[in-house]
Amino acid sequence: MTKRREITGYHEVRAAARDYENYSSNLQGDRDVRDYHQLPLEVDPPRHQLIRRAIQPLFLPKTLEPKIPDFIAMTKKLIAEVNQKLDAGETVEIGNDFALPYVVGCLTVIYNRPQDYDEWLSWGPDVWTAETQGKDEEARVAHRDRNFEGETSRSGVKLQTYLDRVFDEAIANPKDDLWGFISKLEFDGVPITRVEMQGAANVMLAGGRDTVVKLITGMIWHLINSETDRAFLTENPDARNAAIDELLRFLTPLSKMERVPGEYVSIPDKDRDTSKYVLLSFVSANYDKTIWENPEAIDLHRKKQPHMAFGFGPHTCMGMGITEAETRTVLNELLENWPNWKFAEEPDIAWQEEADYKYIDRFRALVISR
């Protein structure tokens, strides 16, 4: 297989992320499991801004702030449940037993869909591997090598079945929840279409799921690993936001994204040679040695420098405020009363090696005990 061209380096990636004419986001991703664009992620300005403005109210600080107490209550509950299991002599896998339930729970709060918690949780960390969740671990994670070519273990059936059901209900009887909100959207005075509903919903359920699970799992991994950093953050609450930024840089939950070279933009999706797509390497930007000293280490005392974990330019992640609020809530609760979690066994981490650095692709298992 011919390796895709990658744009690497801090300044190079930032420049390309701004240059949507030569590096367009107008593409259909996840081609093996869906046949529509995610919105507003997979369209370019000016339509991108039009859709983004319509959806953005869900992610504004004034919308999010009233929900923080629910995040805190959920964190306390999950920590208590983990501690109860540990006190009984059991072990707990942080990704599946803490981070995933927390992220899914936060989504039900943000989207006002508490009735969907069990269904969303059953999909696992990635909606595209929901069909194999809990059945075949090797198949479930096979696609995670980031080759963007699709894998046989992936399927869009569960998500599509769910979206068909909730949008049928929302169109017939819109309620004060995510699907009611989306079903009533207009873009420049034109009512949203059914396909566009799916495109917007797809970002909200498929995006920011496995990435935030990775971030929270990685944060807990580091807190257990480094008693020194844990003590520093406990004694210096004002340093916690910067610590989250450093963890975002180090973990870079979404390492790379596709872009369409300018000469292919006018060609319909179905007729494009996708091997000609390029990858924006956000992780290379976050590990650029000309910007970050010793980038393969977590350093909570770094001089402030904008990271690329949320992308850059017009397509900067809409959900970054939610991600930071979710992570900050867990960090604060753990530090205020550290539960003395320890590794029950060596963490099972999938590292990805590049030419001059390596980074964490995913946590296969982070098993803890007392």
From TrEMBL:
GO molecular function terms attached to this record: heme binding; iron ion binding; monooxygenase activity; oxidoreductase activity, acting on paired donors, with incorporation or reduction of molecular oxygen
InterPro entries: Cyt_P450, Cyt_P450_B, Cyt_P450_CS, Cyt_P450_sf
Family: Belongs to the cytochrome P450 family.
Protein name from the UniProt record: Unannotated protein
